Amino acid sequence: MGILSNADRGLAEVMLACLGRDGTFVVGDNEPYSPADGVYYTLDLHARPTALPPS
Fold first, then answer.
1. What is the pTM of this model?
2. In a domain? residue 13
3. What is the extent of the structural domain holding 37?
4. Between the CA atoms of 44, 25, 20 and 7, what dihedral angle is there, to the nearest 10 degrees?
5. Does a structural domain hold residue 39?
6. Strand pairing class (28-29; 2-3)
7. Does residue 23 fall inside a structural domain?
8. What distance in Å separates the CA atoms of residue 33 and residue 39, rounded to the nearest whole number?
9. 3-state DSSP call for residue 21?
10. CA separation, residue 25 to residues 8, 12, 17, 35, 39 (Å)
11. Distance CA 9, CA 3 (A)
12. 55, part of any domain
């Protein structure tokens, strides 16, 4: 699975650490795509309009 984040990395860092802890999941940090690639639909749809942290 991929954890998508941008400027605010707080939640992403926690999720990456927790999900990667036991090795059950293959977890990517902004993989296979990222906001740098112009992929931020989920951030724009779910995080920003509700004032949730964007990561």
1. 0.67
2. yes
3. 2-50
4. -10
5. yes
6. parallel
7. yes
8. 7
9. coil
10. 23, 15, 11, 22, 23
11. 10
12. no
